[in-house]
Amino acid sequence: MLKLLIFRLSLCLTFLSVNATYARQGTAYCDNIVAQVRASFNLNQPEKIYALTSVIFQKKMPGEQFALGMNKFHAKTGNWISSVFKEENEKGLDYLVVFANSRQIFSIKLNGEGKIDRLNFAAVPIMIPEKIGQVPGDNPLKDSLDLMVEHAVRPYIQKGNTCGLVLALIHNGHVRKYSYGSVNKKVKQLPDAEYTIFEIGSITKTFTSLILAEEVVAGRMKLTDPINLYLPDSIPALSVQGTPITLQNLANHTSGFPRLPANIFNGKVDPKDPYKHYLPDSLYSFLMRYHPSVMPGTVFSYSNYGAGVLGTILERKLHGSFEQLVLSRICKPLGMSHTSLTLNDTAQKNFAQGYNETGETTAPWALASLKGSGAIRSTLNDMVKYAQAQMAIKGPLHKAIALSHRPTFIGKAQSMGLGWRINRIGQHTYLRHSGGTGGFRSFIGFDPDRQTAIIILSNAAEDVTSIGERFLK
Q1: In whole angstroms, what is the distance from residue 273 CA to residue 369 CA?
Q2: What's the 3-state SS for 135-154?
Q3: In which residue ranges of the chain is CATH 3.40.710.10 found?
Q4: Is the pLDDT of residue 6 over 80?
Q5: Residue 455's closest CA among 211, 205, 209, 198?
Q6: Fold designation for 28-123
Q7: Do residues 443 and 456 touch, judged by C-beta distance below 8 A?
């Protein structure tokens, strides 16, 4: 009886081994397709990958859309380094793929003709452990506000992928500041409210819109001006059924422009600094070939490109670099002496090290022709001055600031001023904006009626918006 059981077990194992070998041999053709996809991916030739897809696949996704998606994905992940067969399932074959900046599960399914019916990437989940021991901070923990800040920030700063954070709360002229973590994981140095510099990312858009508002208040530009009025004559009219894209549409994200232009991912893109190659020629080249399809002013659709175009228009109109405009029009009047785009030697020493989503170091971002969308760097103290100016009833920029707060678009999901998102909670209205670059996150929000504001700057790519919203709500 025992011998018979052993024989049956041996036969079963042999059968499973043969079937596993047969299944592995059945993936040989797919392995070859995957190799072709990898080669074309690394050469930035998405059209060659698209040529491997089936008629069914191509009906679901046009070639232009596919190419944009693949180029954007390449810009984020970098080159395809290696791949290993993982498993076969009802959706096809899965491969574990290692990219320069990511690990992904690549799923592929072929039809009977050997064409790709399904192709998909999914990031391999990364478990980031919490830090061992309590991260230092200067919160005195003396009253209810201190405790509220501690309760909101502590879970964030203890995450393994974060590094440092500074936060300021303003209420009726009183300012509370808090600092947690470090300017760099290699040193034990709390971020300093006066000197430590962070990238503020898309909060830059509120500066860009404020410069526009200044020009409008002075009577030198109009929000209703078509953007073609300020662009090279070679660019065709940008309009839909006779309705032009205006300066206001750029400032409130109702231009219909995409979040990022398709040609930003053409050629080799440095994932660590993905926009530095996008010079004005590229920006104008996209406009030359762009055909608007969404009626301007009717749909909110967040666009980094639109903000970049606005910044470029202001440079052309005012005959100065975007940095010069920010410094002379906003920073100097408000006394923001540690805010800039470029960093001198002193500022470079005070610039916090940024960290990406997985807690690895990142390079600073240079946004070339898209500076108006997110290139400013600043300190907590300077951003406090900026927030205070937003809530002031007078001051050198008061009229322009007031104009930037007026609703220019009211939608179900989002209402907008010029650059500012407008939100309502009960009877209260507050304005806000978040920011993010490769290694930084930021938030500013304020309620002018209640004279309350919050500013958060972090040198890690872990969102801080929920912390800021929590205090405003």
Answers
A1: 14
A2: CCECCCCCCHHHHHHHHHHH
A3: 198-472
A4: no
A5: 198
A6: Nuclear Transport Factor 2; Chain: A, (3.10.450)
A7: yes
Calculate mean pLDDT across residues 190-194.
Answer: 98
Report the mean per-residue pLDDT for the chain. 92
Report the distance separating Cα 251 and Cα 210, nearest Å: 9
C-alpha closest to that of 397 among 457, 338, 324, 333: 333
Residue with the larger pLDDT of the pair 394 and 179: 179
Angle in degrees, 0-180, between the axes of helices 144-157 and 465-472, rounded to the nearest 10: 160
79 Cα distance to chain centroid:
21
Q: Who contacts 456 (Cβ-Cβ below 8 Å, separation ≥6)?
A: 165, 166, 167, 441, 442, 443, 444, 464, 467, 468
Instruction: Write the DSSP string, 261-276.
Output: -GGGGSS---TTSTTT
Helices (H), 83-228: 144-157, 204-217
Question: Residue 84 pairs with which residues in a beta bridge?
Answer: 96
Nearest partner of 402 among 189, 213, 221, judged by Cα: 213
Q: Annotate 137-155 with b (16+ C-beta within 10 A) or e (fewer).
A: bebeeeeeeeeebbebbee
Q: CATH homologous superfamily for 198-472?
A: DD-peptidase/beta-lactamase superfamily (3.40.710.10)
pLDDT of residue 267: 66
Ramachandran assignment for 243, one of left (phi > 0), alpha (psi -120 to 50 degrees), beta (any other): beta
CATH 3.10.450 positions along the chain are 28-123
Determine the Cα–Cα distance for residues 398 and 390; give it in Å rounded to an integer: 8
Q: Which of 423, 454, 457, 427 has its CA nearest to residue 440?
A: 457
